[in-house]
Amino acid sequence: MSERITSIMGSDNPGDAEIQTHAPGVQGRLPLTDELLRHAPSGDLFGLSQNVGMGWKPGRLNGRQFLILSTQGGLRGEDGSPVALGYHTGHWEVGLLMKAAAEEISSQGGIPFAGYVSDPCDGRSQGTTGMFDSLPYRNDAALVFRRLIRSLPTRRGVIGIATCDKGLPAMLLALAGMPQLPGIIVPGGVTLPPTEGEDAGKIQTIGARYSTGELTLEAAAELGCRACATPGGGCQFLGTAATAQVVAEAMGLTVPHAALAPSGQPIWEEMARQSSRALMAMEADGLRMGDLLTDAAVHNAMAVHAAFGGSTNLLLHIPAIAHAAGLRMPTVQDWIRINRDVPRLVSVLPNGPVFHPTIRVFLAGGVPEVMLHLRRLGVLEESVRTAAGTTLGQVLDWWETSERRHRLRGQLLEKDGIDPDSVIMSPERARQLGITSTVTFPTGNLAPEGSVIKSTSIDPSVLDAEGVYRHKGRAKVFTTEREAMRAIKSGGIQAGDVLVLIGRGPSGTGMEETYQLTSALKHLSFGKQVALLTDARFSGVSTGACIGHIGPEALAGGPIGKLRDGDLIDIVIDRSRLEGRIHFVGEGEREVTPEEGAVILARRPLHPDMRPDEALPDDTKLWAALQSVSGGTWSGNVYDVDRIVTALEAGKKALGWS
Known about the structure:
By secondary structure, the protein is α/β, with parallel strands linked by helices. It folds into three domains: 63-193 and 229-428, Response regulator (Rossmann fold); 439-603, 3-Layer(bba) Sandwich (Glucose Oxidase, domain 1), CATH 3.50.30.80; 623-655, no CATH class. The protein is built from 26 helices and 14 strands. It has helices at residues 2-9, 34-39, 42-53, 94-107, 122-125, 134-150, 167-176, 206-211, 217-226, 240-250, 266-285, 289-292, 295-308, 314-324, 332-341, 358-363, 366-377, 392-401, 403-416, 427-432, 481-490, 506-509, 515-523, 594-603, 618-629, 641-654, and strands at residues 65-70, 75-76, 82-84, 111-116, 155-162, 183-187, 450-452, 468-478, 498-501, 531-534, 546-551, 568-574, 579-587, 590-591. It comes from Paenibacillus mucilaginosus 3016.
């Protein structure tokens, strides 16, 4: 046992035992006045001592204080090499943005502070119990970010630097909840694609492709090594991470042309300095988050989401941002109306029709380029204020004639041989290519509260002449993602099947993402002939005939939880009219009408194997309960404090606790 302790403690170093017991302290004087000493809170005075104790010069203590928050993760050496890994590339380099932003604030006479709440990687946790914490993390992180903001009472404004699937939505929720404070978002950017290889979305299917004989072991190993071609930034596709960046800019919460910048490159680092200057100008002008984040700004974000073909996860995040800001929360009817009014204009991974990486969207002009087209269609609210201190209309006027626009679009043509107008298209060109709007919200006897599908990404080869997806097939029902994935890898799922995954909504798993399944179906040769129904949600990179967010969730008594193997399911999705239905229409050899099917389902018990996952942590059970009484999935999985308190008081009274 002593050998074990010795191996841990190491050999004695006499120098380590030389302990300093006091120090002279900082030489100088705090800029105190009679007024401060008599009337300032003790915390303000103690803060000055803390500031000089950390090395800030006493003569510079009177500058305006600004807080920089980020999702930084890992430990980088000065040369960029890893000392300790982060969870993902998305937060690996954002410390460089923090440093650039802080130096700019300092150079302007301000005092920068920095705080961190790191974030998980949805790709890393796919198919694991780590996914049970993914969506709940967003609310918890936003809560901690807000506590950090309030815990620095002397801050004049906040910069939020974040990139990925839950970290950036959490940052948006946090700043939205501070309407009286100047705030600005700095998107953490994107990673580059490999010169030869696969993007970070497709690479997540190497296990499925290898298991079904569609990829060799050698190819899987080599492709996996190259997928993240640069060490920082979110994934190269328009998933939730990239879509959240786009939405932040569309809301007017960033400097112009900020979303999707290439991580680690000079234009990306300069964005941090631009953001610091913008925030300090906002503070000087009295411009606050509440002036930027309005109902009109939320409308613009939804329009840009539709034009980009963004992740369905933003149907959870945008309402949550609106709720945090005290705004009207968009409804399903709002999403339907906007997606009917706004055409998809961006050709990008994973939607296509050409699978350009996100760096090309940035070079083609990014958010402001898309907004130029939307302005011509008359679907934007141009009078909204932006973090640049001007209206959106003024930002777009600047962008249209800017040297930056001309130079970057020229680089895309010069370096990659890509016409920027083929990446971000005019409505006329998009219409000629048959590109359809982004999302559809099917209903039916299996989804009485609704569901969602990224209908624009259904493979065109499985549509009829009118652009309608029709699929009638037998259900194969699974109560865990692991079982469903095993069936895909072993041949248990065949062309024509309807794969049904139940009990994976908020109450079962924290509403896990099921990208393992959707990515496998996309990249397996027979996958486009399979439909997927679930009460879980999808990764932003998911594509195909995959219908999620089905409500009510199975564990809340939803009809989807009553399906059995062999049940006949009828799915119709009209990509042009943005209408859809999912019905149970038969058991055994007997086919019934949707109305008769609803009656049969009402009489059935829930699936006997369905229950909350045994590994579901108590933290997530608490989140599930709180978001459920706050409106649930279709209200953005938020914490509505008034409704929660009302429910608790009613419960206490019913139990005789009060």
